[in-house]
Design a protein that fits this description.
Layout lengths: L1 E2 L2 H6 L4 E2 L20 E4 L5 H11 L3 E6 L21 H4 L6 E4 L5 H13 L2 E4 L5 H4 L4 H8 L4 E6 L14 H7 L20 H24 L4 E5 H7 L4 H8 L16 E6 L2 E6 L3 H10 L14 H6 L1 H12 L4 H10 L4 E3 L3 H5 L2 H5 L3 E3 L4 E3 L23 H8 L3 H9 L7
Parallel strand pairs: 3-4, 3-6, 4-5, 6-7, 7-8
Antiparallel strand pairs: 1-2, 9-10, 10-11, 12-13
Protein name: CaiB/BaiF CoA transferase family protein
Pfam families: CoA_transf_3 (PF02515)
GO molecular function: transferase activity
Amino acid sequence: MTVTTQAEHHAGMPTIDGRAAWRAADIATGNGALTGVRVLDLSRVLAGPYTAQILADHGAEVIKVEAPTGDETRGWGPPFLESGASSAYYASLNHSKDNISLDLRTDAGREILGHLLAGADIVIENFKAGTLARWGFDYESVLSERYPEMIYCRITGFGVDGPMGGFPGYDAVLQSFGGLMSINGYPDGNPLRVGIPIVDIVAANMAVSGILLAMLERGRSGQGQLIDITLLDSVISILHPHAANWMVGGTVPKRTGDFHPTVAPYQVFRAADGDFFVSAANDRQFRSLTETLGLPELADDPRFTSNGDRYAHREELVALLSERIAQCSREDLGRRLEEAGVPASPVHTVDEALQSEQVRHRGLYIDDGDYRGIGVPIALGRSGHRRPRPAVPLGSDTTAVLAAMGYGTDRIAQLRTAGIFGNP
């Protein structure tokens, strides 16, 4: 997809090739299943950037475009990277990407954006509804006709139509609006936000799924399409089993603390040296749990024979189990329950989890002097993946990307002086 503007034609300037912006796309090998795919990341904060990062992990060449003020998550710290270029928050969502800075409020900035769009296989954006249309890049009426193979992923809070279409969306707001907050916490306490931005993270993974589905379909039809992802859809999709329980039983789900809404025992207990989680979701596991704890008589107690019985008498059951678990060390009990086939684990802190032998064995925590962060969680047996490279400072690749497209040294200097890339 090569674009030459009328002004460039009359001025005798070189052709600007949008495809050439992705300098490594045609030469990268062995980086994963998406090697050679060109992704334009126009998003900010979490869901969009994380979507693009997942694609980059599997070989896609990603160019992230940021305003001269930068993605606001660069300032979401402490902690900050030693270079001071960004926060840990930003770095964990934007590794393995090239980065350019453009003031898209300017004609020149939008001209460059047009060339980047011309070369992209996939576009990811989470602008306020209508923003790209005002700039002349509406997907439905412009981009889909100009570039029919383009896969365009739009991420919004509530969608662009309907009674709340165009409303801004934030993770905690959607946790609240979508019912998730109402079922998280203790019965006698306030509704609680889940301790991670779960709605944004689910939206990102749904966006990746949608993009890959569209790529599969494009292989048959030759046509791209819109992937319409909303935070609202994402939070509603994860209300299991509470949504199903209400639809069938009619009772509004309430907060149950660390009790499971349908299974017992399935919760945190206090061991001698810290918190410990136990799940005995079927009768065999429950019998093994009681035998391991030296309480085999509980498995034949009429109050605890089936899961329904155990749930009905869960407070009595928890009291009996708690007394015995409180006498055990976490590691010893965990080992014995594992051997007995009962799902259980010490409640690890984040540092304990990241430094555990199995997490390191899986390559999920990398600290090799060049990159320190989470590894790639999707493992493909044959295709492999890209080894993450650190997120870069704002605008690090602006000059190189524009030069690759065909912008001359003088023109790049003019754009820089005009503030198109930020403060000159």
